[in-house]
Design a protein that fits this description.
The protein is an all-alpha fold. The chain has one domain (14-91): 434 Repressor (Amino-terminal Domain), CATH 1.10.260. It is 65% helix and 0% strand. Helix 2 packs across helix 4. The radius of gyration is 13 Å and the shape is globular.
C-alpha cells in the first residue's frame, strides 16, 4: 500500500477527525478497544488517546488500525478530500 503525501497529514486533518473515524469504524465492526489494540499491535493507551482526539497517531499506527478494521489509509484520504471539495462547492 502506498502512503499518502505528507501534506495529507496537515492541520486540516485533525486528531479529532482520525479519532472519531477509528472509534466509529471500531464500533461498527463490534471490535473492542482491547481487541483492536492487540490485533494492530498498538498500545491500548495510545489507541485510547487517538480515539479521544488527544493523540494524532502516526501514519504507521493509523495504517495498522485501519487495516485491522478492513480499510486502507489511502482510501480514507481520498474520500475525505472528495468530501471536503464537495462541501466547498456547496458552500459557495
Amino acid at each position: 500500500m502506498s502512503l499518502p503525501r505528507p501534506d495529507a497529514w496537515s492541520a486540516r486533518r485533525s486528531a479529532k477527525f482520525w479519532g472519531d473515524l477509528i472509534l466509529k469504524l471500531r464500533d461498527e465492526r463490534g471490535v473492542t478497544q482491547r481487541g483492536l489494540s492487540v490485533a494492530a499491535q498498538v498500545n491500548r493507551s495510545t489507541l485510547r488517546g487517538i480515539e479521544r482526539g488527544e493523540k494524532p497517531g502516526d501514519m504507521d499506527i493509523m495504517e495498522r488500525l485501519l487495516g485491522v478494521l478492513g480499510y486502507e489509509l489511502d482510501a480514507i484520504e481520498v474520500a475525505a478530500t472528495a468530501q471536503e471539495k464537495s462541501s466547498c462547492l456547496v458552500a459557495h
